[in-house]
Amino acid sequence: MTDKESKDLQVKPKQELTSPAEQTRPGVVFTPSVDIFETDHEITLLADMPGVSADNLTIDLRENILTLTGEVEPFEDANEEDILIEYEIGKYHRQFNLSSLIDQSKIDAKLNDGVLRLSLPKVEEVKPRKIEIKTG
Amino acid sequence: MFYRKLFNIPTWGLNRSFRDFDRLRRQMDELYGALSGGNLPMPTAGVFPLTNVTEDTENYYVRAELPGIKSGELDIQVTSEGISISGERKIAEEGNNVRYHRREREAGKFSRLINLPGKVDINKVEAFMENGILKVTIPKSEAAKPRQITVR
Description:
Largest interface: A-B, 45 and 59 residues
Number of helices of chain B: 2
Oligomer: heterodimer
């Protein structure tokens, strides 16, 4: 573990979405980097969306399709001139197919420092239940 | 904007179209990089974090996307000619009994040095983080500021 923690961060260019399904406004669309992990009780999703404020983030869950959309405000003033531009800004958009049934009423989303943490609790029925076998 | 500086093209009203042109050029560079199999996609320094540097008459602005990094975890140093940004991005462990489906976010240390094109006033530098974006405002030193000359 110490080995992993001391490694240097490498540049990973933002992934531009190649076929945005429902693009109605001009602009670049990126797919945010995500971590998704699952326990017996819930699915948790972490997404890097720098520049997105809570007001500009939309999370939509419909028929097991989870859609994340984040709008980014232009960062520059009009009178600023570019000297060095290494990254671009644009919308974030990504969709996921969720395999388990999610309890919509208990979904919890937090946005901190540009990272979204989305907790998607599974509905009671799909939680694995240990069946006690009684010996008669 | 390298081309604009090189050819000394006036920028009034052309800002937008030049930005698009720059974007196209970057994409072409990216494409050529990908086709030749090289790992040199963009004219970037290839050092994390990727940085955007802009200027107006008063200040330089250095911006970087650093999601998940607290302001306290960043070390920013400014000299009269440049700025260094370093820190470490940590991703907390989520326990042993989790099954990962995707793991795209990365942790690690980073350190970046950027030279600014002119002299700066190191006493008035301001940095702030908002929604994972770092913005450092670096005032130009008096000697480096453009001066309006009135013709009499």
